[in-house]
């Protein structure tokens, strides 16, 4: 009797497992082999422990398929391998059929996509107003570097990865939280604690520590929000734009645009609650740090590796119109930064070779027929586009592991030799890409115009793609700095 019960239980379990792992086959989609054997379960475990690395391996494994059904954490996912198909899906369907639920917001029975609401924050005129804050942080970095010199020193060796990380944290804290802290002087601050805890590997340890720093950041944010809304304090930064949005003000630039908040902000109902505003701020800080720190570090890394690229950068900077402050720091303006076209190409090539977002994962929220097929994705299905794997594929990019900024240069007809997807597709393109490029350009300009830079022992540096691309070395990403004589 007990033997029969065991047989029935095991049979039901096997039938349930088979039902889960035959989802795509029942829908007539091509799918990976899911016979209950050891190699298949190894794939499931690998996707759990090394998600990005496993998805990249799956991309290479199914070369003959434009898309393939796979299973991650017992969840069916459609891996879209073909670039033209991915581009078509994201351009034609993402606004209505696919959603990044993190940015969904409902109020008074209406549903909003907050990314669309936030996009005007990062337009030209708003960024131009924020530039002095970014430059102030850059000058703090230069002051820190100048303090490293002793009287007889001609060359100073510093960790570039630490410098850029600190600079990016300082910029984001300044723009998003309205913090005036100089992170190069006050090294033990809540923002650095937050980032360090976020990057720890131990999840439980990370969780408890991060709660403490998050609470402190929320208290700081609440204090700044109350101060600005009650006193009418004006500061040209991202937080000011978020407060305008929270209070129902127009944040799109036009003739009537002003950085001030409306006078009746204390009377009417807020568009964004304080808790929702806090979550938006944390999302912006997290994504901004990952994108800026990774891209800036690797752009500098690649420029210093190649003398020809470095020479082109310096030639482009020679045409810069410069002024000096009383502190002898070189000042730049927004228009000059936009003229750095070759540096733009370098940033694009960095985002291709070292993407800060290795894959795009979206959930289908409305039935969608895949272009060129009779197959339909249903509400609730998950789609994965492996950006890193696509951008490292010889099918789409010549010598994908070589750093060639000119691959994205426009020809005489205005077309690019190779397609650039580093900041996303269609409606899902990164809304803050102009801010990211502005911050990266500014730190590179400040470094190259003030110092002669040289990488030390680049052969020992290794690139790690565990989650985000980062440089691994026993002594860090060390560079040598030699002061340039200002003309």
From TrEMBL:
Pfam families listed in its UniProt record: p450
Subcellular location as annotated: Endoplasmic reticulum membrane; Microsome membrane
Gene3D superfamilies noted in UniProt: Cytochrome P450 (1.10.630.10)
Its membrane topology: Peripheral membrane protein
Residues the entry annotates as binding heme: 430
GO CC entries: endoplasmic reticulum membrane
Keywords, ordered alphabetically: Endoplasmic reticulum, Heme, Iron, Membrane, Metal-binding, Microsome, Monooxygenase, Oxidoreductase
InterPro entries attached to this UniProt entry: Cyt_P450 (IPR001128), Cyt_P450_E_grp-I (IPR002401), Cyt_P450_sf (IPR036396), Insect_CytP450_Detox (IPR050476)
GO MF annotations in UniProt: heme binding; iron ion binding; monooxygenase activity; oxidoreductase activity, acting on paired donors, with incorporation or reduction of molecular oxygen
Principal location class: endoplasmic reticulum
Cofactor: heme
SUPFAM superfamilies linked to this entry: Cytochrome P450
Family classification: Belongs to the cytochrome P450 family.
Descriptive protein name: Probable cytochrome P450 310a1
Species of the source: Glossina fuscipes
Gene: LOC119635263
